[in-house]
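Write out this protein's structure.
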Amino acid sequence: MTSARFPLALGPFAAALFMAVATVEAISRPAFDLTRHAISMLSLGDRGWLMASTFVISGIAVIALAIGLREARAGRPRTVAGPVLTAIFGAGLILAGIFPAPAGLGFPEGTTQDLQPVMTTTAIMHSVAFNLAFGSLIAATFVFGRAYGRERARLWQVVSIATGVALPVLIVSGMAVLIPTGVAFYMAAVLAWLWLAAIALEHAKRVRV
């Protein structure tokens, strides 16, 4: 069980790394406007390598976290699907780093304001990665919520299920522009990473020394 400690610690690490880089880049990159642009577009332009690398590193860390979750759940109600779905989320992040979002709407700097994103093969792969990552994570929140219910850990059950409900609401709201798209996706990312980091820490507390 001690072997699970390090990969579990990678959950909070990945969350802090991803959101720190995304936030600093969103504030400091010329022409980037969070009300118009999704944070995945930060993989474009002169400094795009930084956000792209962050996607890949965070994804690798999440896959390692999934292994730690599997080890940490030994002796508890089995949720094989939970760690598997977490690993798929990590794989989606890696793909999103390899295949960047399309340019458009004035970003990166030098792109015309009225240019709509063109769905090239790379852009389609990024969209697939986005849906894979968030779809698997949303499913994971309900899987873990059910497991916490069997354990009578009601607070964690409520937190997990509430996260699973809130994430698609934010994503759909952003796509429908009920909330500015970039803001909605940013909020979804914050919520997703907070939940994942919290789950990792909760499991780490139960790992025997």
